Amino acid sequence: QVQLVESGGGLVQAGGSLRLSCAASGRTFSGYGRGWFRQGPGKEREIVSAINWNGGSTYYADSVKGRFTITRDNAKNTMYLRMNSLKPEDTAVYYCAAARTMGLYYGAYNYNHWGQGTQVTVSS
Fold it and tell me: Measured between alpha carbons, how far is 116 from 73 in angstroms, rounded to an integer?
């Protein structure tokens, strides 16, 4: 059974940091693009960051650029999102996803495996 499991979410004060992890099991995703999405209260799910199969290409939404860093460790079948200088508007459920092929993808329709999500709450 293929699973993506996020961890590392929690409650943090504005200006603080968190590191999210997304561990995959059931198959390897080392040859596939991966991404982080989030859905805030009353909002649509949006792309936060994406990374191609070997980490050579990355994408960040303008709202997180310069504050978040996406990385992956293919040997561990795991992806990470380091989030610094967190703001209350970063409050959301964060989802990790694995894409259908190896590239860098912004749209949710390119991803066919999803985690259950982890809550990130940033207090002001």
Answer: 20
